[in-house]
Amino acid sequence: MTRKEPESEMLAAAAAPGVYAPPASAKPSQAQSRQRTREDIESDELRSEVDTPPANEYSGIPLSVDCGPTPAAKRAIDIMGGSMLIGVLWPIWALAAVLIKLDSSGPVFVRQKRIGRNGAEFRFLKFRTMHDSGEQHDLLERLPLGDLTRRLLSPRGRPRNATAVGWALRKTTVDELPQLLNVVRGDMSLVGPRPDIPEIVAAWPEEFRQRHKVKPGMTGLAQVNGRSDITHYEKVRYDLAYVRHHPIARDLKILVKTVSLVISKKGAR
Length: 269
Fold this sequence. Notes:
It is globular, with a radius of gyration of 19 Å. α4 packs antiparallel against α6. The chain has helices spanning 6-13, 30-34, 38-49, 74-103, 139-142, 164-172, 179-185, 198-203, 232-244, 248-264, and strands spanning 109-115, 121-127, 189-191, 217-219. The strands form two sheets. Strands 1-2 form a two-stranded antiparallel sheet. It has a two-stranded parallel sheet with strand order 3-4. The chain is mainly α. β3 (189-191), α8 (198-203) and β4 (217-219) form a beta-alpha-beta unit.
């Protein structure tokens, strides 16, 4: 199958019933219809074939996903972009650190084990948002158990153990800024599937782990199409769509959409 164009593939990636997807575009004109590409047609065919996944099976997630080529410039963009953002945003880092120390006892940063490219573990940085060492007190609620076509990535509302400052950092996504260090160091990219903790990855069906064929990112296709308000199944379909096709142009579009998403605070928790 030929590669899909970014927008058409985003729709195809979440085509199952009840799945969060971008709004359908208006009916094309006759001139636009003549310009429909083979990728568009294949995308439509895929959407029509996807039905509600039967028990223990997940339609639209094949056992083998071909990973598209990663542009050579991607690493250079990560280093330059990450370094520039650290330089520009350091006053916010400093303010966050002071507020965290004033609000509750404990370290400013937490270092968590996350699963990266090819299943390798790395230390993931973020600002502490929970009391003491309670960063994973909501783990049971986040595990991918039961019907993954219905279970959200994280429960709605404020985590029980979140501090007042921590909740504000989560809602504004400031708690994720330390991951820029992971990007510069090479553990992560600016754009890619979000890395998960080992406990979550261990609970996934094997085919879900194909998202690890590319480097994880600070933001990704799943994040700009629902963030925490989508299910594990939807997230993995978006991530695998990115694995198949991730040119620089797609990364730039995701980064632009991420800015508006952060401003809106939609799905942040």
